Amino acid sequence: MEQSSETYYVPAQSHWPIIGAVGLFALLGGGGLTLHSVQLQGQASLFSQIALYSGAFIMAGMLFGWFATVISETRKGLYSPQLDISFRFGMSWFIFSEVMFFFAFFGALYYTRNFSVPWLGGEGDKGVSHMLWPDFSAVWPMLNAPNTEQFPPIKDIIDPWHVPLINTIILVSSSVTLTLAHKALKLGNRGKIKMWLGITLVLGVSFITLQVTEYIEAYQQLDLTLASGIYGATFFLLTGFHGLHVTIGSIILFVLFIRVFKGHFTAEKHFAFEAGAWYWHFVDVVWVLLFILVYLV
Fold first, then answer.
1. Is the alpha carbon torsion for 104, 106, 111, 116 positive or negative?
2. Cα distance between residue 233 and residue 109, in whole Å
3. Of 42, 193, 239, 284, which residue is the least packed, with the fewest Cβ within 10 Å?
4. Nearest-angstrom CA–CA distance, 53 and 4
5. Number of structural domains the chain divides into
């Protein structure tokens, strides 16, 4: 029986998993303690802040170090085609988990708009809540909550045809430029890779900058905050988590940009580039859904 010459690379024992576990425990524990202390005292305790920021610092260091190790092993040619398949499966499952993450928030938005708010207005079998607030008008977006003392009214909603539309054009364009960069990589044209990837990175940073200005406008001019009832909560949860993902995606693009300048990636082997592109395209698709379901409908 002929033995295959292909070997499966088994990495040496690594300290990164235990460091990641410690960092994740501190990050989540510090986050929970921070929320608890804010609820009880009105401000975060010193211990909770130390735990939270220490966890974030440890996680950042772990990711930087672990990915640096993977890049080094890749550059040494240690990875077999079988391991490349494992990487692809891993990234696919990661993106699937992100799909389900956003699916939960879109589901909460759907339930709120189609069930909870109509019940508050007296619709359906569970519409007895209209007895508590008989003057409440069940409309969406809900600018006036039933209990206006606890949830102050919102002056207006974000204009979808201003910053949100511009950001939609920016993200859709960034998917196009990233695809052109990927095509240039397959053709071995490093000049065009740098150009199109650089443009994609600029578009990503522009999106984040515009979203920050949108949040400032929402807080200062429209009185739209996380304390504005269910509309404010769903708006900032969906757009905020998406903005976080765009930030992470921009960091990924920046790392890829540096690696391209260092001469990394070939037309045949460039999974890291592909994985970053998958993630960015996923973020773009989520934004299109957000623009339609949060801003327009």
1. positive
2. 10
3. 42
4. 49
5. 2
Structure tokens at 201: 């990175």
State the residue range of the domain holding 96. Answer: 79-296
Q: Which residues contact 79 (CB under 8 A, 6 or more apart)?
A: 9, 73
Q: Going residue by residue through the chain, which has 297 residues, state the pLDDT in tens, using 9 for 90 and above.
A: 444 455 666 777 889 999 999 999 999 999 999 989 988 888 889 999 999 999 999 999 999 999 999 898 888 888 888 888 889 999 999 999 999 999 999 999 999 998 888 887 777 655 566 666 777 777 888 887 777 777 778 888 899 999 999 999 999 999 999 999 999 999 999 999 999 999 999 999 999 999 999 999 999 999 898 888 888 889 999 999 999 999 999 999 999 999 999 999 998 889 999 999 999 999 999 999 999 999 998
- Of the residues 29, 56, 78, the one at which a domain ends: 78
Residue indicated by tokens 């040496």: 12
**72 and 204 in a common domain:** no
